[in-house]
Amino acid sequence: MVKYLFLPIRLIIALVIILNLVSCGAAIGRVVISKPDEYAHVYEAKETVILRAIASVFKEKNIGSNVTINQKNHQVDSDYVVSGDWRTKASAHVQRLNWKECEVILAVTTEKKTETGWKIRRLLEKDQYDSFFSVIDLRIYEEMSRIE
């Protein structure tokens, strides 16, 4: 008897989860924003190591073409990569916080071509930025292990 009592509760919970996923999935890429989202993360490394690591990740993940490092401004930028009606570029700024920590501010700009021109859309959420920061973290250790 008790076993059959939990069946409707499980069905209701599963239905709520499915509806939540479907409603969130439809908004991906449709939200028009005025400026790209920026997220920050703190690393324990020198600016030059972090800049090289970020540039390497940009190239590896094909997030933008022609990746350039500006040592003077502590910035890594890429050109747009166009794929159909979408184009993407990335930018990261490194700022020293103290003697051992640097903050990285990352912005991935995704635009969709419309009749009136290119419109910035939100394609990446915070979770995707967090996984991006994790890849950068691993690459920083690889860069630090290289003998110069």
Mean pLDDT: 83
The assembly state of the depicted protein chains is single chain
Shape: elongated
DSSP helical segment count: 3
Low-confidence stretches: 1-26
Structural class: alpha+beta
**How far is the first residue's CA from the last residue's CA?**
71 Å
Helix content: 25-40%
Count of distinct strands: 7
Question: What is the N-to-C order of secondary-structure elements (H for helix, E for strand)?
Answer: HEHEEEEEEH
Kindly estimate the percentage of residues that lie in beta strands according to DSSP.
Answer: 25-35%
- Largest sheet report: 7 strands, antiparallel
The Rg value, from CA coordinates, equals: 20 Å
Description of the molecule:
The chain is of the alpha+beta class and 148 residues long. It has helices at residues 2-25, 47-60, 126-145, and strands spanning 38-43, 65-70, 75-79, 81-83, 86-96, 102-114, 117-121. Strands 1, 2, 3, 4, 5, 6 and 7 form a seven-stranded antiparallel beta sheet that branches.
